[in-house]
Amino acid sequence: MGRDVWEASPAARSTFEAADAALGFPLSRLCFEGPEQELRRTELQQPAILATSVAILRALEEITAVSPAYVAGHSLGEFTALVAAGALDFEDAVALVHARGRFMQEAVPDGKGAMAAIMGCGPDQVIAACQAAERASGGVAAPANYNSPRQVVISGNAATVELAGSEARKRGARRAVPLPVSAPFHCSLMEPAAEKLAGELGRVRFSDPRVPVVTNVEAEPNSDATRIAELLRRQVTAPVRFTESVQCLARLGVTRLLEVGPGRVLCGLVARIDRSFERLGASTMSEVADVAAALRD
After folding, report:
1. How do residues 189-226 score in pLDDT, each as one tens digit?
2. Within this chain, do residues 135 and 93 fall inside the same structural domain, yes or no?
3. In terms of residue numbers, what domain contains 219?
4. Could you say which of 127, 148, 181 is where a domain stops?
5. 74 in catalytic set
6. pTM score > 0.85 for this model?
7. Active-site residue identified among 75, 137, 182, 223
8. What is the CATH number of the domain that holds 131?
9. Which of 28, 186, 245, 283 is catalytic?
């Protein structure tokens, strides 16, 4: 992950080196060589994805002007968005997400939490299914990611999430797909992680973003540095309002979206929300060159 940009771009190489120095261990080697099992650990996966995303962005900036009107991210991606907007130093971001991942992993014992993607029904039906499951079990199940009008990821206690999936199918969902995650993110079970992260956020200096950041918690643009720490704290337990964020960008007049980072998941989700957007993606050096050519047109 990210090796080709590291080999081709001095700016990307400097980004990975800065991540290694900030964390005190060779994150770059883990990105390039694995093992994959280590990369799946939340406390390593989060800084690895952040570092790779920012390295790709720096490689792109090295060869062409990148001037977004707005930035946004999905969960962890909001930290990348803040770095891109100049609101958060990269080294601080890497350290924060390393701690964030650790706190999230520690919040719920292994095997006690779960997440599942509910496919083929709307948010209202998913919310009703979660509420029914909570009443029946006494556990937690709640929407964690509003990914598209017909895909909502739920999170909570493992048995309650399974029951909510069954309830959702009764309400018209095509499938409830368990996700291979290490913790139940973006639900109330993450409150211990949010409290610990608040302490780390309080030690970081945020700046007013150069361009507004459409936040996960509010699905509205924020340009106020004094609000960032609290929004990031709330994000740990609140659902990611990605569908509303994309709809917000459309209302603001955005017509072209650029996804920067490993993979093309968000471009796919955007296509399910609003196909009128032009969608570009940069996850490899060859795609960086293609995007640079498109941005120059």
Report:
1. 999 999 999 999 999 999 999 999 999 999 999 999 99
2. no
3. 3-107+189-296
4. 181
5. no
6. yes
7. 75
8. 3.30.70.250
9. 186
